[in-house]
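We emphasize that the prediction below concerns an isolated chain of 233 residues; any contacts that depend on oligomerization or on bound cofactors are therefore not represented. The input was used exactly as deposited, without trimming of termini.
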Amino acid sequence: MGPAVKPITIVTGHFGSGKTEITINLALRLRSQSAEAQVALADLDLVNPYFRSREVRHILAAKGITAVIPPEEFLTSEMPALPVGIINTVRQAKDGNFKLVIDLGGDEQGIVVLGQLKPELNEGDYTVWLVVNPYRPFSRNIEEITATIRRIEAIGRISVRGLISNPHLLAETQLETIVDGHRIVRETAERLRIPVIALAVHERFAERLRESGIQEEIWPITLFTRPAWLDPE
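Result of the prediction step, given as a token string:
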């Protein structure tokens, strides 16, 4: 799975990037690596009312993944509230008890949330990956993606260590859509000298992309949080 996964993986991205779907799928991938793998997913996307990983907490539980989410009374609220026990969860992950994946909102409010955890995070304990969909605002070219990274790093006092390429146009996505968008993400990564961790694509495209000569690891993504009318036919 690309670079070695640290105890804590923070996945962030703008609304519409596919960040939450990728976070859920990453947690499931880590869990599937062995029967003994212990994985937790923390939903820190506290201001986005749509497509939240907390909505699939029952699916995660059925797969043996611990969901760290805000209290029940805040599950449908837009009021920012750190999940109960998140500090203890971070500490346990640092101690090597399990892998923790954090779904972090990519806007300014979301990144500020990370500041509450920053005192608990040492450089060697975590990594930050940015999900990029170059067909969404603020991510349409190298300059916009770079500006997004610099803003995240300045506000959150963190370093983005890799990009997850996720080029799509929802149900209108074609193979060419993915290939053309991925080229923008790869060129940005090369300019910034950070890796492309993976190319995330709907599972229906995975095999054809493997045959197309894409160099990066391909992650087939199963959709969990989107309503049925948004799913590809």
